[in-house]
Automatic annotation (TrEMBL):
Plastid in keyword set: no
Any one GO cellular component localisation term in the record: cytoplasm
Species of provenance: Mucilaginibacter conchicola
Protein name: Thiamine phosphate synthase
Keywords: Thiamine biosynthesis
Superkingdom: Bacteria
Pathway of action: Cofactor biosynthesis; thiamine diphosphate biosynthesis
């Protein structure tokens, strides 16, 4: 990463599980990147014996070649030791964000999960964050601990902030068009819908097609 922050504005935000076998993970990520992604996040779901120093550069090389920013889930301290990371995604409001910025000592992207608390939206908006992700819109195995967020909450957040809003949790190409009629959001965060697909390239394209489909509310 250079000294300038990349942008995350709209589209498909892919979350990858470092618990996957490395060859399969890299192959599926490469295919998804071919279809075009807004960002990639390495989920904070590391196996105990994970070699972070080997996986992060390998993932970064693919993302960098595609011009896609790479974020780490929660573990912001990795930003101090790895220039392969463009930012961090927090699952909750960090109490020491000013200290984090001082210690990282370089520009970085910052995103946060909102489980329906509009105070989180207000905090992110006031602290220079780059995007907000709502979890969960629908029940899913990867977001089992997230409460369900209503379209009304997303629309209220849209009135509070101009930051890009992403939605996650049980999102499929089939339910995106209806959700777009109910809520104003900029992108979709996906894990299993792409990384567990037999054809990640086709799966990513299906999400993109559904997201860009026009309807009366867009």
């Amino acid at each position: 990463m250079d000294g300038n922050k990349k942008n995350i504005d709209q589209g498909i935000y892919l979350v990858i599980d470092p618990g996957m076998e490395k060859p399969e993970l890299l192959l599926k990520l490469a295919l998804a990147l071919k279809a075009g992604l807004a960002a990639v996040q390495i989920w904070n779901h590391w196996p105990e014996d994970a070699d972070k120093s080997a996986l992060i550069p390998a993932v970064s090389a693919l993302c960098r070649a595609a011009g896609v920013p790479l974020l780490i889930g929660n573990d912001w301290e990795l930003l101090m030791s790895s220039r392969d990371l463009d930012g961090v995604h927090f699952d909750a409001v960090p109490e020491n964000f000013e200290e984090i910025k001082e210690r990282v000592a370089r520009p970085f992207l910052a995103g946060i999960t909102c489980s329906g608390e509009l105070s989180t939206v207000e905090w992110a908006n006031s602290n220079g964050f780059d995007y907000i992700s709502f979890c969960a819109i629908y029940p899913s195995s990867s977001s089992a601990n997230c409460p369900i967020v209503s379209p009304e909450t997303i629309n209220t957040a849209r009135r509070i902030t101009g930051l890009p809003l992403f939605v996650s949790g049980g999102i499929t190409p089939d339910n995106i068009p209806e959700l777009k009629k109910q809520a104003l959001f900029n992108g979709v965060a996906v894990i299993s819908g792409i990384m567990k697909a037999d054809d990640p390239l086709a799966a990513t394209q299906a999400y993109k097609n559904a997201f860009t489909l026009k309807n009366d509310n867009r």
